[in-house]
Amino acid sequence: MKSHCGCTKSTKVKAAVCLLLVYLVIHIYDARLNSNIASREIQTESINDLEVFQDSHSPFTVVGNVTSKVNGVRRQSTCDYQLKPNDNSLRISSVSWADIEEANIVVSSGGKYSPTDCVAAYKIAIIIPLRDREDQLKTLLSHMHPVWQRQMLDYQVYVISQAGTGLFNRAKLLNIGVSEASKDAPYDCYVFHDVDLILEDEDCLYTCELNNPRHISHHIDLFSYKPISYYAPCNPSLESATVFSLIFPKLYGDEETQGFGGVSMMTGEQFASVNGFSNLYWGWGGEDDDMYHRIRKQAYSVVNPYGTKCSFRMIRHQHETGNAKNPTRFSLLRHAKARMRKEGFNSLRYRTLSKEFKSLYTNITVDIGQPSPTMMNFLTQRFLPVGIFACHAKMPWQAKKGR
Ligand code: UD2
Ligand code: MN
Questions:
Q1: Dist. CA 65–CA 43, nearest whole Å
Q2: Which member of 148, 211, 288, 293 lies 3.0 to 4.6 Å from 261 by CB, making a disulfide possible if both were Cys?
Q3: Residue 195 CA to ligand 2 centre (angstroms)
Q4: 194-249 confidence digits (pLDDT tens)
């Protein structure tokens, strides 16, 4: 008998049996692959040879455990905000540094400000990772200094400039920002700020939340203001990721990942409890998701009480060749939670080349080293950058041990 699709009943049965067989074969293969990988990881996951994948230059100093150092004291705010309604008057690099300085005479050397007739709740360090984007920095500071003042923040702007032409490492620069800022003052709130994101509605206050880290750049014009959240591949909460769990994460109870890139904030206590950012993400991508997983591991949530009030414009840009997409990010992400205690702020190494107190910001130029040879080798390794293959690509320490 023929059905309306033109095939016989027996053909349909055969097709169904075939599909079932294919499913079973893939599933068995997948389970075996996964258990092989799992047993290999149990032997290698102890990660006690940090030097294998950390840059290991002798003149670099290790920052060490700064848990107590990064914490300040929160006060009861007595400030009344004087915010302006959103006027959409974004000036893209048309102003000169001198003009911006003139419009911000209340900002003191090093890009510092605090309200004179009230007490701000937090002492805030605004940390901007940078290389070769001075025009964007000008636009950001021209727009945001007045906003931060109207928000009555007690703040200082730190630009952490990566020296040289090696691979960019945003997360490491952010760690350095905390390390350097905490030498200056007992900050209690750290803002991690991309240079190209401009706040549209100043009702979105730049203050930390005592109980949870904040991510405020969910809504960006470039992405039609759609909130950024996704089922990340290689999510470490999927302890035994399989092809199926990667293709159908929801079925496998995977956790939705919220973004933590762009503009986010943490108190010193939150930052210390997750051991800062990972230093291992050279090039574009992954470092923000790694921090998200660290945060979840510590049972924090990522919050933003101001909701859609926090919306941003992103200054249009290309991705620089020195910040090429990092092909190891998936594999690193899968180990994010396992690695976080040993690798991060407590293993940060860098060299400060200069510290300049400019009128609108403190510029700290740093030599962050480069990936260790093993990591470099890993970065240039060829493997399928998708699904389970990317998640299970050998880690550098596995490569060293010949596994
Ligand atoms: C996204 C994230 C960003 C980061 C990045 C992946 C959002 C809104 N942004 O940004 O936070 O997670 O993906 O790494 O989620 N930079 C320089 N010079 C360079 C390269 C980068 O100054 O040569 C700095 C600059 O502050 C920039 C930031 O690094 O804003 C992030 O780089 P991007 O803007 O090229 O990356 P994008 O927009 O894809
Ligand atoms: Mn950007």
A1: 27
A2: 288
A3: 8
A4: 999 999 989 999 999 989 999 999 999 998 998 777 777 777 876 556 666 666 76
